[in-house]
Amino acid sequence: MKNNAISRRTLLKGALFTAGSVIAAPVIGQSSKTNSVIGSIPRIVPSNAQNISYGPAFGIAKLNANENPYGPSPLALRAMEEAIKMGSYYVQEVPRLKQMIAERNNVTPEHIIIGSGSSAPLQWLATKVTQEGHILGPDLFWDTTSKMGSMNSEYGIERLDKTADLAIDLDNMYNNITSTTGMVQVTNPNNPTGLPLSPKALKSFCKKASKKTIVLVDEAYNELTDDPDANTMIPLIKEGYNVVVARTFSKIYGLAGMRVGYLIADPEMIEKISSFGLGDYSLNQAGVAAAIASYNDETFLKYSKEKIVEARDMLQDAVRENGLKPLSTSTNFMYVDLGSLNAEEFRKEMEKERVLIRGIYQDYVNWSRVSTGKIADVKQYIRALPRVLDRMS
Questions:
Q1: Model's pTM, two decimal places?
Q2: Tens of pLDDT along 115-135?
Q3: CA 80 to mean position of chain CA atoms
Q4: 33 phi and psi angles, rounded to 5 deg
Q5: Which of 61, 233, 294, 340 has CA 20 to 30 A from 133's CA?
Q6: Which of 253, 269, 295 is the last residue of a domain?
């Protein structure tokens, strides 16, 4: 571990190096001053640079968005440093990223669409399918892109009934597919619950359901599971099943702010989805460069996963010690049963402790989601937890 570990100091140096380069660029429309001249090009720093913040303020534990704060990796930072020098040009390395993804997953580049996070192509997909039918999903899942994609359609989201254990009932989902179902959507592991599905059960479901309609499997957190290769449904696409898989660089890769994600599907489906977007023009040089540099960076991925698991174990122990019940999770977040407490009031009380978490999802009033974050931030949550519970009891 010692030889492979990436120290915080290394990450900080890389981040400061990149941040320094960004500050060196002129900011149009803001008052600025010339600090020095490199050749004939003035080096301009905004006069209000000290007020610019690209992350949480000092002392704030940001545990509300399922981010990996250990990224971007040092390799990604170096790649972005080079890429921003060519920021005046539209991105042109998307084919290289597609080829890398294709080679790993035994598909062709034509099976892949790259977007601004996975959110953009997911919304395009939702827009396409809701021209002809509803999106069928569990009662509780990450539905933002489906809502956005269907907002101008007569069709929308049809939800299954709640389950006692908050798990996705695949049998019930299959039985609810009708002639007006344009797509079924499964998030695995699910968000906000963190619960994974049995790979065997999900594969069986996908094979059956895809004969009736499109099956979307959102695998945003796949790399965080115990066995990512077993849990992915990508091989079904190569086998000819009507399955779409979504992946993102926002989670384990630590590139949430750089906005790169992708869908893998049959080339004909990819072509249809693409008609709703702007193609490569919706992407940016730095984000694509970071994704290329990160994709095979096993050292950084191993380091990140170890820190996430460490934080996850700490959270699980702490909430149990304080009399709360966490769901088992395979992600970088945890869904916690607060008992008789209101999750939105709990979120507000935590905010007073400078800890940011999520509040109520739909009508799950007593369930609270917290992300893993940095170890120091997790410790801040753990210290605040008994104080908040005492105030709310």
A1: 0.86
A2: 999 999 999 999 999 999 999
A3: 20
A4: -140, 145
A5: 233
A6: 295
Does residue 64 fall inside a structural domain? no
Residue 131 sits in the same domain as residue 230:
yes
Confidence of residue 11 (pLDDT cuts 50, 70, 90): very low
In this structure, the answer to whether residues 251 and 133 fall within a common structural domain is yes
CATH number, position 388: 3.90.1150.10
